[in-house]
Write a structure and sequence with these properties.
The protein is 37% helix and 34% strand. The protein has a five-stranded antiparallel sheet, with helices on one face. It has a three-stranded antiparallel sheet with strand order 6-7-8. The chain has one domain. The longest helix is centred in the N-terminal third of the chain and has 53 residues.
Length: 174
């Protein structure tokens, strides 16, 4: 007959009589689980904030580019330009030119409305999120400075606000 050592018997009897986990073991598992879950949540929140900030920046860059392009497309074939003070900042008036050289009729107009939108003569929104726009006219050359911003839907936090300045120059070809 084979003799079983006492240590072996104690270990095997412990495994056979396992009624569950001890309180200390449960507390360690719960603590580790909470730490892992918190780390995942913090990483997720940081990723979402970064994503929203980048999306807002891309949005205002796209808006600025579209607005500048619309103004440039209207200025190039024109004959005369005029920068006029408006209610919410400068406005730009673009005129067709008669063959004799005198400005004929208003071809287009760009101005800021009260909702931070750059609007054309027909009332169509050309760009949004515009804080300010300045038009500088010298002869038939137009220089535009525009500031656009977005608060990324968090008005209580200013640290995630996105803001850009865009400048452009356009010349009448007629």
């Amino acid at each position: 007959m084979m003799k079983i050592s006492r240590t072996h018997r104690t270990a095997s009897s412990r495994l056979g009589n396992c009624d569950g986990f001890t309180v200390v073991e449960l507390m360690i598992v719960v603590g580790i689980s909470i730490a892992v879950i918190l780390a995942i949540v913090v990483a997720q929140v940081g990723t979402i904030r970064s994503w929203n900030g980048t999306a807002a920046l891309l949005d205002i860059q796209r808006e600025a580019s579209l607005g500048m392009e619309a103004i440039q497309n209207a200025v190039r074939p024109s004959g005369a330009l005029a920068a006029v003070p408006g209610a919410f900042g400068d406005s730009l008036e673009i005129y067709w030119e008669m063959p004799g050289g005198a400005p004929d009729s208003l071809a287009n107009k760009f101005y800021l409305d009260g909702n931070r939108n750059l609007v054309d003569i027909n009332g169509a929104v050309v760009a949004s999120h515009v804080d300010s726009i300045d038009f500088f006219v010298t002869g038939c050359t137009l220089h535009i400075d525009a500031w656009l911003s977005s608060d990324v839907d968090t008005p209580n936090r200013t640290t995630d606000d996105q803001r850009i300045q865009m400048s452009s120059t356009s010349i009448c070809r007629n």
